[in-house]
Design a protein that fits this description.
Layout lengths: L1 H15 L2 H5 L3 H43 L1 H7 L3 H38 L1 H6 L3 H54 L4 H43 L3 H15 L17 E9 L5 E10 L4 E5 L6 H8 L7 E6 L2 E2 L5 H7 E4 L10 H6 L7 H10 L3 H6 L17 H15 L3 E5 L7 H13 L5 E6 L10 E6 L2 E6 L1 H6 L3 H26 L2 H4 L1
Parallel strand pairs: 3-8, 3-9, 6-7, 7-8
Antiparallel strand pairs: 1-2, 1-4, 4-5, 9-10
Helix pairs in contact: 1-3, 3-4, 3-5, 3-8, 5-7, 5-8, 7-8, 13-15
This protein binds adenosine-5'-diphosphate.
The site of adenosine-5'-diphosphate has 13 residues, from α10.
Length: about 525
């Protein structure tokens, strides 16, 4: 029961931790903490706690019996026992760090396995198998070496403690024999002392094992505790709210004002750095009126996704202001914010379940007709119909493998189904062909005005829909305006536009030439 609760508590805690926590942790290490560390705690509770009870009971019965019989002989019988216990304590204190190292080494091993399974295609595509096998062997070897070191230390411990225990029995034989010969003790008492000591000495020796396991368990509890000590998002939120309450009454969320979240998105002098010090946004100013469709353009690493991360509070910004309507984003509850946003990322995540269930994540109460409608709008309906089981086809590990574009379109359909106030497509059309892109853009055009749509994109074709285009570079706003306004002024947008035009001209020129030589069809 205790372990069940612990696992449950650990997992629900993990689900509520801020995203930045996962940036600095390795997945393998986390899996290790949730599985094998919890198992260590279970073994300790299940066997050693019982053992502690048993040893204590033996001692509580045997020692008074001995004392009643003969105090002098009792002292002789227990003379080496403090040495045995002292030796166990000193020894297990010294191997404690070894237990920690082994745990960490096992975590590193799990990480290699997990990374390799997740990135199996990349590993193969780049012919990295040998390198990865080598890496695994190295970590496997390190793990073995540490375990070996531990077992050597343990074998030394057991043999020395064996000698100590047997010596104690020897002391009884010799000391008791002496007392009997002196006439101070009966043979019966001598035998009784021998048997009583035999009964307690091995459990006492086992005390070392209990200490060993408690050392291991302490390390495991420490590692589990480290996760449990991390502040969950809501707790951080509650604290921040309390602080805001003192600092700024105006930004406090109004109780009861819970309707759907709508309003202009306004960033003012917004700056943000990730924990590792990377400055992703630097004094960004931006105004997205509610209901508009806007495009955010910029080179990779410009800070586009970071802005979205801040909007849904995956990360907390420190400087500047980011508002939706009149409210500061940091004072809107995460639940409410995330409910209002439909987010499609570049590499969307789908669960290993059916197409329908993946879509229903957007709205669990949607009907079949709704599913049909949104998948049509996201130009993925025909694909689904072609799957053997239609909407009931499993995707992912135990089902069919979808292409990048199909995944993106399913994710778009899922976001449509949610009917969010703010729809964000973060480079989500990168893996679809131009014709499909046009279909999806048409669907977006039909939904124009119903929600704010933010298109993060590299392709100029997607910007044709936009009422307004923002060009971001190095975390700050460089240009904004409509397509016409932006091509009229020098800058990133015009350069992109010129390159794209030049490319299109070149392609159509090549096609014409090839048409003459009759190879155009082949080229197409
Ligand atoms: P874009 O979406 O425009 O390609 P991002 O917002 O993803 O750019 O990234 C902006 C900068 O922040 C980049 O320098 C990137 O390396 C960095 N960055 C993004 N995510 C993280 C993260 N989780 N931890 C640390 N740095 C990050």
């Amino acid at each position: 029961g205790i372990v069940l609760d612990l696992r449950h508590q650990l997992y629900s805690h993990l689900e509520r931790l801020p995203t930045s926590f996962f940036d600095q942790m390795e997945t393998g290490d986390l899996v290790q903490r949730c599985s094998s560390d919890v198992e260590t705690i279970r073994v300790f509770l299940a066997s050693q706690v019982v053992e502690i009870g048993r040893v204590s009971l033996f001692l509580m019965v045997a020692i008074p019996l001995m004392l009643l019989e003969d105090v002098r002989m009792t002292l002789v019988s227990l003379v080496i026992v403090p040495v045995i216990i002292g030796f166990a304590i000193v020894f297990f204190r010294r191997v404690r760090s070894l237990f920690e190292q082994i745990d960490e080494a096992e975590g590193r091993l799990t990480t290699v396995i997990q990374e390799n399974l997740t990135g199996v295609r990349v590993v193969r595509a780049f012919g990295q198998q040998e390198y990865e096998i080598e890496k695994f062997m190295q970590r496997n070897g390190d793990f073995r070496d540490l375990e070996y070191e531990l077992f050597r230390a343990l074998s030394n411990y057991w043999s020395v403690s064996d000698v100590l225990c047997l010596s104690q029995l020897g002391v009884i034989l010799i000391g008791g024999g002496y007392f009997v010969l002196q006439g101070g003790m009966s043979v019966g008492s001598w035998v009784m002392f021998f048997w009583l000591l035999k009964m307690i000495i091995w459990p006492i020796r086992h005390f070392g094992r209990v200490l060993a396991d408690s050392g291991k368990a302490t390390v495991a509890i420490g590692r589990v505790q480290e996760i449990l000590d991390q502040q969950v998002e809501e707790a951080a939120e509650a604290e921040k709210l309390a602080a805001d309450l003192k600092l700024d009454q105006a930004t406090r969320p109004k109780q009861g004002a819970m309707g759907p979240l709508t309003g202009d998105i306004v960033a003012k002098q917004l700056s943000f750095s990730y924990r590792d010090g990377t400055e992703a946004l630097s004094k960004l100013d931006l105004h997205i009126p509610y209901g508009e469709t806007v495009a955010i353009l910029g080179p990779p690493g410009a800070g586009k996704s970071t802005l979205v991360n801040l909007l849904v509070r995956l990360y907390e910004y420190g400087q500047g202001s980011l508002r939706i309507g009149k409210q500061e984003v940091s004072s809107i509850s995460r639940e409410r914010l995330r409910f209002a946003f439909g987010l499609v990322s570049q590499d969307p995540f789908l669960y290993s379940t059916t197409v329908a269930k993946n879509l229903l994540v957007g709205d669990s109460e949607a009907s079949q007709a709704d599913l049909e409608e949104v998948t049509r709008a996201a130009a993925v309906h025909d694909n689904i119909r072609q799957f053997d089981a239609g909407f009931e086809t499993s995707v992912g590990e135990r089902g069919i493998t979808l292409s990048g574009g199909q995944r993106q379109r399913l994710a778009i359909a899922r976001a449509f189904l949610k009917q969010p106030s703010f729809l964000v497509l973060d480079d989500s059309l990168s893996a679809v062909d131009t014709r499909t892109e046009t279909l999806i853009l048409d669907s977006l055009a039909k939904r124009k005005g119903k929600q704010t749509t933010i298109l993060i994109t590299h392709r100029l074709s997607s910007t044709r829909l936009a009422d307004r285009i923002f060009v971001i570079d190095e975390g700050t706003l460089k240009q904004q305006g409509t397509h016409q306004e932006l091509v009229a002024q020098p800058g990133y947008y015009r350069r992109l536009w010129e390159i794209q035009n030049a490319l299109e001209n070149q392609i159509s020129g090549d096609l014409e030439k090839d048409a003459v030589s009759g190879t155009a069809a082949e080229m197409l």
